[in-house]
Amino acid sequence: MPRIAFLGPPGTFTEQATRALTADFDAELVPFDTVPNALDAVRSQDVLAAGVPMENSVEGSVSATLDALTMGEPLVAVAEAVLPIRFHVLVRRGTTAGAVSTVASHPHAIAQVRSWLDRHLPEARVLTTSSTAAAAAEVDGGHADAAVVAPVAAERHPALVPLDTGVADVADARTRFLLIRRPGALPEPTGADRTSIAVVAHDEVGALTEVLSELSLRGINLSRIESRPIKDRLGEYRFFLDFDGHVADARIGDALTGLRRRCEEVRFLGSYPKADRSPASVRPAASEQAFRKSMEWLAEVRAGRLA
Ligand SMILES: O=C(O)C(=O)Cc1ccccc1
């Protein structure tokens, strides 16, 4: 049975997402304490794949995931899941809100319950943990008084009780998760795919505009752009781009070759079906047929068959 890593310990949102991402096959889910460790386990072939949190509608990208994807051997995303996010706040039985002096959770969870904390636990000191489930373990072990967790974590900690449930500053907050593998056969194009890449543009005037032009000229819909510093050079950045389409699509392949010529570095991070299955809107000039016809025309010109 394939082993699949997830950001643990058991009871995280990522475990829930990884279960959804592997629902089609029998898998043994294996917890790792950090995203970089889970991805390294994929690289070293200890596991087949890893489920990782990617971005959140409230707090933005999970930078640990972005950085870990581009450091080390190449990896690619093969599937995407989006989960609605609401939290339970768990305490040891008998703890009242007034007795909570420390509240623990993953930084992205804390960011999504700031107003709730200001209202209900204004005096509490925040302790950040590697995951929401790790925060529940801290409370169980007596190292923190309250934990902001995924509802599933409550089942794992029968000694803890909710101080509140369904907590979320933004009612419709969502988090996007990816299933990451070593490069191999790509998922088949479905017409409702997303492609992710990371590029380092040359340090010159207009470089980012030119990167974006490669996409816009081909009618490619950009769904996310994020920058992360290149660790060893201050003021230079790696851009993470997500856009509609599959690398097997002519317009995407064409854009990628343009980027490859133009950029210092291009890392392909996968083409995979979008969680919402919404089909890409492709303008006529960027359709498969338009690309095929233009290539046929070029071949004719090159063969000297056109007047
Ligand atoms: O810590 C978790 O449970 C995670 O899976 C990371 C996370 C944290 C907050 C919101 C969504 C995902």
Automatic annotation (TrEMBL):
UniProt-annotated site: Essential for prephenate dehydratase activity, residues: T175
Catalytic reaction list: prephenate + H(+) = 3-phenylpyruvate + CO2 + H2O
Source organism, top-level taxon: Bacteria
EC main group: lyase
Keywords: Amino-acid biosynthesis, Aromatic amino acid biosynthesis, Lyase, Phenylalanine biosynthesis
GO annotations of cellular component type: cytoplasm
PROSITE patterns linked to this entry: ACT (PS51671), PREPHENATE_DEHYDR_2 (PS00858), PREPHENATE_DEHYDR_3 (PS51171)
Record-linked SUPFAM superfamilies: ACT-like, Periplasmic binding protein-like II
MF (Gene Ontology): prephenate dehydratase activity
The keyword Lyase is annotated on this UniProt entry: yes
Residue ranges constituting the Prephenate dehydratase domain according to the UniProt record: 3-182
Pathway: Amino-acid biosynthesis; L-phenylalanine biosynthesis; phenylpyruvate from prephenate: step 1/1
EC number(s) on file: 4.2.1.51
Cited CDD domains: ACT_CM-PDT (cd04905), PBP2_Aa-PDT_like (cd13632)
Limits of the ACT domain: 196-273
Residues passing through the membrane, by range: none
Xref: Pfam families: ACT, PDT
GO biological process: L-phenylalanine biosynthetic process
Database matches in PANTHER family: PREPHENATE DEHYDRATASE P PROTEIN (PTHR21022), PREPHENATE DEHYDRATASE-RELATED (PTHR21022:SF19)
Name by which UniProt lists this protein: Prephenate dehydratase
Species this protein is from: Halopolyspora algeriensis
